[in-house]
Amino acid sequence: MRFLPTRVHGIIDYLWGLALLSTPWLFGFADVAAAKWTAVAFGLGAILYSAVTAYELGLLKLLPMPLHLILDGLAGLALAASPFLFGFADRVYWPHVLFGLFSVAASLTTDLEPVLPTGRREPA
């Protein structure tokens, strides 16, 4: 069931990216290089592809919303698996797993079409 408006998803995208970027220092794992750079790369990546998404908060509006949501889902799965794939699960894993699963959930619950200022849906 898709109930999350794309405008709200856009706000979450930028906040999620910034929050993920800050986790190495907020949660004290900046000394674990693989964990830190994974969080930084996924956080920056989310901000960058949000900026080029064709939704209300996109700056360049190049990436269709359905493709954005596919990227969210795949990136979320990869982020959640990253502590185990990159070998840092013995030091830190909860931020990566939780941020990753949140991204998957958002990808499955967000509307596929942005709403235009007229109130009509933009075709995907």
Can you give me a brief rundown of this structure?
The protein is mainly α and 124 residues long. The protein contains four helices and no strands.
Describe the structure.
The protein has helices at 6-26, 33-51, 65-85, 94-109. Helix 1 packs antiparallel against helix 2 (33-51), helix 2 (33-51) runs antiparallel to helix 3 and helix 3 (65-85) runs antiparallel to helix 4. It has four helices and no strands. The chain starts with 5 loop residues before the first helix and ends in a 15-residue tail after the last helix.
What descriptors fit this protein?
124 residues; 4 helices; mainly alpha; 62% helix; single chain
Write the layout of secondary structure elements.
Layout: H1 6-26, H2 33-51, H3 65-85, H4 94-109
Order of helices and strands: HHHH
State mean pLDDT (0 to 100 scale): 95
Quaternary state, please? single chain
* Gyration radius, rounded: 15 Å
Strand content: under 5%
Inertia-based shape? elongated
Q: Which stretches are low in confidence, meaning pLDDT under 50 for 5 or more residues running?
A: none
Structural class: mainly alpha
Number of extended strands:
0
Helical element count?
Answer: 4
Largest sheet: none
| Helical content band | 55-70%
How far is it from the N-terminal to the C-terminal residue, by CA? 17 Å
